[in-house]
């Protein structure tokens, strides 16, 4: 089919150009959720909330109350769907994770066996390219950790936590994974043996506690202009010319009122078939059992079908009613 060949060429060009035109970006979330009965996770994630411009929502670690649920329903309806949970299942229950997925959120959880491992995993997750300088604070002194979080926000640095009397294994592992060279210790309660251990391992250290002056590092500069920006603009210009041609050719194929199967994935076809066999309307909560996919997977499929204009959802009570709004040609599937 000629229009498919045109579309394939355009996608091939974009596949080649976009990696050059798009600089590295940090992981992106629309919301960060932490427990509301312990400040340490909230403080530890502050630098990353600031880095990706995502709000932090403290919640009851055992379950979501009705008011919080209502606000989260509004948030997901505004297409803010990517959520990060900070803490293991003992910090924030699996029930909360399931509730979020049932609402339509895509959930990522980052947590360790203790707060030092959680800090390590967060640092490596948000700085996969590493960081020459790392901030280190006590896992027990909230005041020092708060000061360390502010420093990490100001200089855009990862934050690790350690025990006060010795360097925690998670902190040491985080330094290795981040390929760090300099460690900025923050706080008065850290034992001198921690700095000695770091120096013996070859790290340069600076201790805000023994020193009052700011650390000997530069405040990060604004990101430089992407040198491939104009190449990317040229590619977009080419698309503006090519897309109308592709759409014209596509309309010749899609001129009928029925939607062809070529634009649907296997999973989307399975969901649409279940809706059709149910008379064109179905509760979203009934689909996972009918099609054999998980609730989060079904939620993502429905969102994609909505984007394509094939279905619409209506909130009824605690669930969604899904309606097929366009006829799909299922013959031969």
UniProtKB/TrEMBL annotation:
<dbReference type="InterPro" id="IPR007253">
    <property type="entry name" value="Cell_wall-bd_2"/>
</dbReference>
<feature type="domain" description="DUF7343">
    <location>
        <begin position="267"/>
        <end position="324"/>
    </location>
</feature>
<keyword id="KW-0472">Membrane</keyword>
<dbReference type="InterPro" id="IPR011991">
    <property type="entry name" value="ArsR-like_HTH"/>
</dbReference>
<protein>
    <submittedName>
        <fullName>N-acetylmuramoyl-L-alanine amidase modifier</fullName>
    </submittedName>
</protein>
<dbReference type="InterPro" id="IPR051922">
    <property type="entry name" value="Bact_Sporulation_Assoc"/>
</dbReference>
<dbReference type="Pfam" id="PF24034">
    <property type="entry name" value="DUF7343"/>
</dbReference>
<keyword id="KW-0812">Transmembrane</keyword>
<dbReference type="InterPro" id="IPR036388">
    <property type="entry name" value="WH-like_DNA-bd_sf"/>
</dbReference>
<keyword id="KW-1133">Transmembrane helix</keyword>
<dbReference type="Pfam" id="PF04122">
    <property type="entry name" value="CW_binding_2"/>
</dbReference>
<dbReference type="InterPro" id="IPR055767">
    <property type="entry name" value="DUF7343"/>
</dbReference>
<dbReference type="InterPro" id="IPR036390">
    <property type="entry name" value="WH_DNA-bd_sf"/>
</dbReference>
<feature type="transmembrane region" description="Helical">
    <location>
        <begin position="230"/>
        <end position="250"/>
    </location>
</feature>
């Amino acid at each position: 089919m000629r229009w498919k060949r045109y579309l394939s060429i355009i996608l091939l060009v974009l596949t080649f150009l976009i990696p050059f035109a798009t600089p590295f970006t940090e992981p992106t979330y629309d919301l960060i959720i932490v427990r509301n009965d312990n400040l340490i996770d909230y403080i530890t994630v502050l630098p990353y909330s600031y880095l990706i411009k995502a709000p932090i929502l403290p919640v009851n670690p055992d379950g979501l109350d009705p008011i919080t649920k209502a606000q989260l329903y509004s948030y997901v309806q505004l297409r803010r769907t990517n959520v990060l949970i900070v803490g293991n299942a003992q910090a924030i229950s699996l029930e909360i994770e399931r509730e979020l997925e049932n609402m339509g959120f895509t959930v990522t959880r980052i947590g360790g066996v203790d707060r030092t491992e959680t800090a390590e995993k967060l640092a490596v997750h948000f700085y996969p390219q590493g960081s020459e300088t790392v901030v280190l604070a006590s896992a027990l002194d909230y005041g020092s950790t708060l000061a360390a979080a502010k420093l990490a926000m100001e200089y855009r640095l990862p934050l690790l936590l350690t025990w006060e009397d010795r360097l925690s294994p998670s902190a040491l592992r985080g330094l290795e994974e981040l390929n760090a060279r300099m460690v900025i210790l923050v706080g008065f309660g850290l034992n001198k043996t921690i700095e000695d251990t770091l120096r013996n391992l070859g790290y340069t250290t600076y201790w805000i506690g023994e020193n009052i002056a700011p650390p000997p590092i530069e405040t990060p500069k604004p990101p430089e202009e992407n040198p491939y920006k104009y190449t990317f603009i040229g590619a977009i210009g080419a698309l503006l010319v090519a897309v109308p041609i592709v759409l014209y050719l596509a309309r010749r194929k899609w001129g009928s009122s029925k939607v062809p199967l070529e634009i649907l994935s296997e999973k989307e076809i399975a969901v649409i078939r279940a809706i059709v066999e149910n008379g064109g309307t179905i509760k979203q909560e009934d689909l996972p059992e009918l099609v054999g996919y998980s609730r989060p997977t079904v939620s993502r499929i429905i969102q994609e079908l909505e984007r394509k204009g094939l279905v619409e959802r209506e909130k009824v009570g605690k669930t969604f009613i899904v309606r097929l709004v366009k006829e799909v040609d299922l013959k031969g599937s």
